[in-house]
Amino acid sequence: MKIQSLIPVITILFTFTNAYGQENNLQFRLKNWKAIINPESLKVLSSSPNGLNILTNPIQSNLGSIDKLKFNNSSASWVFPEKQLTVSIKVDNDNLVFNFTSNKNQILEWPSTKEVTNAQDLIIPDGEGLLIPLESKFWQNAFEKYYSTEYEMASAMTMPFYAIRTKNSIITYLSDSSLNNLLYVKNSQNKIFVTQTHEFRKIDNYPPYQISINLMQTLDPLAPAKLFKENLIKNSKFKTLTQKENENPNIKKLYGAMHSYVWGTGRTEDFLNDLRDLKINNLWIGSDVGESDKYKITQNYIQKAINLGYLIGPYDTWENLQNPKTADTPLAIFPNAWPKAAIINKNGSAKPGFQNRGYEASSQYFAMQNPINKDLKDRLNKFAETGINSYFLDVDATGTLHDDYSPTHPMNIEKDLQNRISRLKLISQDKKLVLGSETAVYQFVPYIAFAHGNASVFNGPHWKLTRDKKTYGRWYPTERPSFFFNSLNAPEEYKETKYNPTYRIPLFQTVFHDSIITTDRWEIPITKFRNLMNDRILLELLYGIPSIWALDKKQIKMYSKEIKNLNAFFSPLHKKIATLPMTQFEWLTENKCVQRTQFGNEVQLTANFSNNKFENIPAKSIELNWLKENKKEIYTP
After folding, report:
1. DSSP 571-605
2. Percentage of the residues of the chain whose pLDDT score is greater than 70
3. Cis previous bond, 491, omega within 30
4. Are strands 311-317 and 283-287 parallel, antiparallel or unpaired?
5. Are 337 and 367 in contact (CB under 8 A)?
């Protein structure tokens, strides 16, 4: 038997520049494609029987001449002396890996997809994931109108990659880190393209900028996500829910559970009786804290919820710092921290907090306390003493990171990231609480069990709408804030950008479905938009994730039928698939209105978002196929 080598064949070709300016080209043969790179312009092409295809544009800024070119059969490197910039390339299986280093404060703008051959769609992990037609006038206008042309990769993208889908392939651009990277959405000749920049900064000690380019002969829009997941697993940066459950068995209570925040009468034991009567056996319950609230979460309430099989915990945040004498929430009071824990800007001023309330609190200040994180531990212990089994910590997992120029507690964004990971571990590992946070980006997923907000995409229209308090609602009355309980019809543009299923793709679920449980944003409960409720439920079921609710006794009475029916369909489904990977996603119709997902080898879900029947699936309905049992169910919200 002949054994063929699994090592890819790699060749490199270099031709010297002559007096007439002939290009120097480096040529690599990877496992499944051939790349041609111009070292002076950083232009990258792929070679195929049909000719040359552009993968990245020539760099726009003048980097000057190159020096110290070295190459062998698997790599190359050179220097741009004028920019103090060193470039190296290596072949890693089917990935062409670029590594840039510099000891100079500067911004490098590369790569750009402006001239990618036959480009058709942009694939971007904005929240759950979007597939945007590059020639769509609607999306060109939406990016401009909602000031969404700039993505800070660390916080505005849940994962550090994007891709271009062409007529016959997918080109993935994957960064090894999201820090100090920006993605700009631009428009040229009525066609969207993207450009990435990286900032080399002294405060970070100039870490390298690494980005790999991968070309796949496929049209599967989830191919970039599958590539990213493989990369995480390869580098031991992936942790399954099963592994997390082994560390804290209470995580299993998330399986089959919808999520709900409670207000007013939702904090009464009678409310819990209502849930029991609806046969809700699994639920995550969260609540904020208000000193003047008429109804408060008591220890008896907590114990009763736990006895019913629920997870229950507080909403908390360690991000905002306010004067204890004037603070608008007890969550902004840290007795040993005001005002010295404030983050200091480069100009020496204190960094204002959210909506100009107090200051942003420095994670480094708390990390330097003696004992470490004293204020945070005191807060945590106070909550834990009430008997809770879960916790929601806002902001920490979003990737919103800060530099701190304080002379007493200085930090850079990498240090802030590590501080936040440490304090997430404090809650989940030390206190054994089932921990969630807001819109988790990839670095934080291993340390939490659930996240509220990842299912949301393109939030520009959302921020605009929430500022219209008259329409969206306000934070009062205290017992039933209209911000959560007011129901309205979503504007057409809001509906199109955020919930049109033909633009959405489950990138995040493809990577992390078997690692973390996610929902929509907490201030967009499923009842918030009357004209979106059905489509949102179908999307969530298709993606195998729970819906999120704002509940009190009145809300349960209004939606008892919807709650009971959805729970009866969702709970057994989610218990089966919560720990399984999403293994398939496809469009079954040309207009993308019928979509199918699969989880492991257990379950297949087919959602019909159209207004017409598809095969045996009614309009606006979903079919659940239990593959091993050969049993099918239909659910219509």
Report:
1. HHHHHHHTTSPEEEEEESSTTS-EEEEEETTTEEE
2. 96
3. no
4. parallel
5. no
